[in-house]
Amino acid sequence: MKSALTVLLTLPLILAAIGIVNQDAAAEDETSNLAKVDYPTDYRYWTHLKSMILLENHPIADTFGGLHHIYANDAALTAMTDGEPYPDGAVFVFDLMEVVTDDEETATTEGPRIRKDVMQKNEKLWSETGGWGYETFKGPDNKRIITDPVASCHGCHASQENNDFVFSTFRE
């Protein structure tokens, strides 16, 4: 009887301790996610800004060769068309696809996805990169592959500082 009473008295303490540990783990996970760019689930419904094919003789073809589709969410599009700075919440997606030419070489289409690059604006989270967070999602599982967004992404985007680090423009 004594062991059953001990369990009944200590069980709430154990459950409370587990709850505290889980709350701390959740807070830690939440904090670690602050610097990560969100995965863009609905970007194919955003405004398509442009498409472009980088051929194999282009200087950056090893990394970015293929068919590019660039998308902007509403916040990015409004700022772009109004000529205003991009607000927090502006997002661009660079969807890179393989280029496939048919056997007769009469048509070229998009093939499988190579990678999906995302720029997300948040001045507080990414102040060292002009307010932009960068991420690349690769493969069928959309694995995050950027380990140093300052060197991997912002180093190139820095050339567009006068355009708030964005390469794309709006074409009517």
Can you offer a commentary on this structure?
This protein is α+β, with helices and mostly antiparallel strands and 172 residues long. It folds into two domains: 1-33; 43-163, Chalcone isomerase (3-Layer(bba) Sandwich), CATH 3.50.70.20. The chain is built from four helices and six strands, in the order H-E-H-E-H-E-E-E-E-H. It has a six-stranded antiparallel β-sheet with strand order 1-2-3-4-5-6.
Give a brief rundown of this model.
This protein is of the alpha+beta class and 172 residues long. The protein is built from 4 helices and 6 strands, in the order αβαβαββββα. 20% of the residues are buried.
Topology:
Blueprint (H helix, E strand, L loop, with lengths): L1 H32 L13 E8 L6 H4 L1 E7 L1 H9 L8 E11 L6 E14 L10 E7 L4 E2 L4 H9 L15
Antiparallel strand pairs: 1-2, 2-3, 3-4, 4-5, 5-6
Supply the key terms.
6-stranded antiparallel beta sheet, 2 domains, Chalcone isomerase, globular, alpha+beta
Number of H- or I-type helical stretches: 4
Level-2 CATH architecture of the largest domain: 3-Layer(bba) Sandwich
CATH topology of the largest domain: Chalcone isomerase
The CATH class assignment of the largest domain is Alpha Beta
Helix content: 25-40%
Strand content: 25-35%
- Classify the oligomer: single chain
Q: Tell me the span between the first and last alpha carbons.
A: 81 Å
The number of E-state strands comes to 6
Q: Note the main sheet.
A: 6 strands, antiparallel
Query: SS-based structural class?
Result: alpha+beta
Q: What is the average of the pLDDT values? A: 80
Number of domains: 2
Fourth-tier CATH superfamily name of the largest domain: Cytochrome P460
What are the segments in which pLDDT stays under 50 over at least 5 consecutive residues?
Answer: 1-34
